[in-house]
Amino acid sequence: MLYPNNTLFHPPSFLLMGIPGLEDVHIWIGFPFFAVYLIALLGNVTILFVIQTERSLHQPMFYFLAMLACTDLGLSTATIPKMLGIFWLNLRDIVFGACITQMYTIHICTGLESVVLTVMAIDRYIAICNPLRYSMILTNKVVAILGIVIIVRTLVFVTPFIFLILRLPFCGVRIIPHTYCEHMGLAKLACANIRVNVIYGLIAFSVGYIDLSVIGFSSVQILRAVFHLPSWDARLKALSTCGSHVCVILAFYLPALFSFMTHRFGHNIPHYIHILLANLYVVVPPALNPVIYGVRTKQIRERVLRMLNPKNC
Question: What's the Rg (C-alpha) of the chain?
């Protein structure tokens, strides 16, 4: 196949445009992004510190929460610093290798987040629907195996994205109308057939539907078990236990769903709305997750309060 003379398989750099149509207010948009990043860093580091230092939290639910916190730190750090560079310093250039690395990190972290939330839903299902056997089912060995499965599954589905991009020739415009590098945004710049990229992207995205199905099944079974409890106090306690997890699931999947729907069907929606929704998908959950768990999880909340006010201990 012949390519134009200006074709490069590995172009030196790309140009990230930020949020097209809102360039005049980029500097102001950067402030909430900066605040969200600080919350994500402080919140997730605090969650990890509390789980590490509090021996009573060395149990499956909190091991999975630690995995989620690590994933959130990776996702926010892979995206927000570059966004702030675009918004505040007009640093729009990103070298080819850095763009590929950012794309891979973002897809790894969102894949990890999805499967960790699924495993956490299964954990809550066992804790409420089969509490007497909880410690027998979710032993440390099982948790370690689940951790390995989480990582391996994500690597298997995300790693091909690198090779699908590296095989493509790039020519002409190398401008990405986005705040970060992602698979289809890069593929659309190629001067070659990207059908394989589109098909594989849909296959990889469909794995999220499997995760959602497992989460939905677990939630239905939990609700059934809760409403069969003898007293309202027991029901409210069980619902409160799952409430934080439901909030985290909604915070992750709703922006992703809206972003996907507007990308596929919202052709009349302004492009900056697409970009803002895509930003919510990677920016909001890492900051919201530690806040939700910090407020709604009694053990973590009490430990953080003791850290902030040691005189009352």
Answer: 21
Separation CA 89–CA 70 (nearest Å) = 28
CA-based nearest residue to 192, from 231, 164, 156, 152: 164
Q: What is the pLDDT of residue 73?
A: 96
pTM of the model: 0.90
d(CA 261, CA 174): 26
Among 74, 75, 78, which Cα is nearest to 99's?
A: 78
Q: How far apart are CA 287 and CA 249, in angstroms?
A: 13
| 14 three-state secondary structure | strand
Pairing of strands 175-176, 13-16: parallel
What is the band of 307 on the pLDDT scale with cuts at 50, 70, 90? confident
Q: How far apart are CA 164 and CA 71, in angstroms?
A: 24
| 203, 239 contact by CB (below 8 A) | no
